């Protein structure tokens, strides 16, 4: 827990993933009704797919994530976790709500909407350490057992995948109630899995 007593949540994301996006929308709702210390971190679906299917070409959406990752890494260094939150909100809205490709021009538009200079992208791409940082973060949590996004680490517990949320994303106290149950289960070492039938 944080010094304030709030649970510490490491939220691992990839801008390409619609499930990661939906879980982040829920997490932002939770933050309105529960005291949480959320840290936005990076998990690359491109890297997972490379390891699992080395002969398959990289998906275009996963290629788009590279620039968003590097931009968010630099923003986090300069301005903290809230900058990542703002940028991911804009990237996710463009990608998953407005169905836009995250081209370099679109990434710059999102950066500006989030309240930063569009040159943040150019600065991030000029610094190779932004690439090594997100890849290192991915490798570290992958080694701990994370295999997809969204993945949550709550108060240093083992990473858990999900929750996977369908529409509509819960809001208000309903979002908080789901959080309470997710947190209670995911921090118990004996809890393994809970699923519904896929239709």
Could you please describe the fold and organization of this structure?
The protein is α+β, with helices and mostly antiparallel strands and 199 residues long. It has helices at 18-33, 45-52, 60-79, 81-97, 104-113, 119-125, 129-143, 172-186, and strands spanning 8-13, 37-42, 151-154, 160-161. A four-stranded mixed sheet has the order 2-1-3-4. The mean pLDDT is 94.
Q: Main β-sheet, in a few words?
A: 4 strands, mixed
How many helical stretches? 8
Mean pLDDT: 94
Order of helices and strands: EHEHHHHHHEEH
Ends apart, CA distance between termini: 38 Å
Report the count of strand segments.
Answer: 4
Order of strands across the biggest sheet? 2-1-3-4
Uncertain residue segments: none
Helix and strand composition category: alpha+beta
Overall geometry comes to globular
Q: What features would you highlight for this structure?
A:
199 residues, alpha+beta, 8 helices, 54% helix, 9% strand
Topology of helices and strands:
Layout: E1 8-13, H1 18-33, E2 37-42, H2 45-52, H3 60-79, H4 81-97, H5 104-113, H6 119-125, H7 129-143, E3 151-154, E4 160-161, H8 172-186
Parallel strand pairs: 1-2
Antiparallel strand pairs: 1-3, 3-4
